[in-house]
Amino acid sequence: MSTSKSSEAPWLYTISSKHKVLDFNFKEIWRYRDLLLLFVKRDIVTVYKQTILGPLWYLIQPLFTSVIFTLVFNNLGNIQTGGVPPFLFNLAGITAWNYFKECLTGTSDTFVKNQNIFGKVYFPRVIMPMSVTISNLLKFGIQLAIFLGFFMYYSFTGTSIAIHWAYLPLFPVYVFMMALLGLGLGMILSSLTTKYRDLTVLIGFGVQLLMYVSAVPYPVAEAQAKFPPMVAQCVIYNPITQIVEGFRFMLLHSGSFSWIGFLSTLAISVVVFLLGLVVFNKTEKSFVDVV
Amino acid sequence: MIILQATNISKQYRLGTIGTGTVSHDLNRWWHKVRGKDDPYLKIGEVNKRDTKGASDYAWALRDINFEVQQGEVLGIIGKNGAGKSTLLKILSRVTSPTTGEIKTRGRIASLLEVGTGFHPELTGRENIYLNGAILGMTKKEIQAKEAEIIEFSGCARYVDTPVKRYSSGMRVRLAFAVAAFLEPDILVIDEVLAVGDAEFQKKAIGKMQDISKSDGRTVLFVSHNMAAVKNLCTRAIVLEHGQTVFNGGVDEAIDFYLNAKSDRLALRDIKNRKGNGVVKVEAVNVFGLNPQQKPQSGQPFTMSFDLDNGKGLSAKHVQFDVRIDDSVGQRIAWLSTSLLHANHAEAPLQVLQFQIDKLNLNKGIYHCTLYVKAENTVSDWIQNAFSFEVVEGDYYGAGKLVPVNQSKMLIDFKVNYIDV
User: Fold this and answer.
1) B residues 233-272 near A, CB within 8 Å?
2) CATH 2.70.50.60 correct for B266-322+349-391
């Protein structure tokens, strides 16, 4: 121990009322990486504890939704899916949409849901939404496997469908974009809901509505042909439409793809994510007092 | 070396509920910020007294707190309910940020604000050890290295692979404390964790805390109402009152200061947790020794003076008043009751009641009192653990010798006869 001022170690960190707009402590997040993994494990292990069907629930939900969509939109509504079996078309859309939706809804109540633990102990708060996004990846993987199963079934029974191999390398980028968008929007929403709970009400049906302007149960071409121009614009310029459509383009070779659409969606995703981080960081400093 | 330095720490809270009215304040605040001006609401707010209604909607839970902590020091933080202790700890552990001021630190801070945070009921004890450890800032490797010790310390080895939801609440606390006890931060922040578990485990916990602070030389900030524990563990203490530091110095002086501040008339009328019909209620109590300025001392006169709220004007004849005294671990040791003595009751309404002991025969320590008042044979006011008082050591037998506390809590007059046969 030294008593002279000059030889003292520098301050490790400062707790202060003033914050920079962007101060991410990536080193700190890295230090807590084990926590991130443990949260992911917790989410995966505990969701279906004490249920009979267990992880089968991961499959039931998209399958039934696809069946309903096929009945309503394709059989009843007569929407053309461009030669692809409607069930497979819907399953592809729902698989992509579900991952985005789960990320969004799973992270949008971060502060409210975790106020107990956040109010007691400090760790980088962003670990929480990150863990949700990662654990949803497993769910996404399972649903994707189902899709591939049905894909093979259809191709063995003689339906002419093909994966667009040339664009398949973009697949991880698409997943990444969905995660960024869902996480970014979720973080923004979670910050807003801490003080004003109105948004929690909105998120419930807002997500439902968003699905219908994201070209999930129909191809973009149909929207362009049949929607009023205003609505069609909404659908086309919606980044999630780009993701869903691109996803189907890769896996089913249906619909269209443009590099401009792809790159702008990527840019939007990154911007939304960064914006989410900024808002989230600002909120985490004081949310305990307002939640 | 100064490991922690707090300068001008203040924390402001908004009172009341958050609703549409808050939006206008938020907008106003934002508008000031945009123009580069100070937050207009920071200027208002008065001293944070819980029992008086203030003029503004803002309260300062902490105001201009300054202190320094040396490496290896164990600093006690004491104060009444609402003095700002927990707020200060929350700021230190980065759960919330201060409204003004800053804290600089040379070490990593980990807090033990409440044990068992983050336990997931569906996971087994072992899985929860990992999860909880990681939440508290340990890496998987560190936990792995200590897993056996943690399980051993918790005494839950048999249940460690059973989901925590099947645990008794005591076991949960044991496991949680065990995880926390094996944390190795530079600065450990502890808030009232010793109030958990059974006597055996409490002893173990206090022993562990002493190990942490004494042999490992770690810096500890310790908040407690248990003066014995504070005295035992801390080397220095600060006393908070209404969000301000009123004393900063040696632990004995700090406890003296705190208890003397308390030995003033203690208002009991705001205690919510009481039973009875309220015909006669206890308003305030004043406990003192030789004279109203002195603390109770063994072997000296002792007085407990109660102010009563007696709306119906009942006379002493219709009122039974009991004081039940427990020692610091909750063991009942004495019962003083008006019903035990013959008395010539006055007819005047009962206003002030005093219990007197000519030569106090309690050894030094903290004692907790439960009050029980019966008016016209029905329970009128019953307050569990209404107040506490401290007895300082005194020469009861007049022989210049003190009785060790662990030998006897009660001091009994006795004679020794030497008989030659």
Assistant:
1) none
2) yes
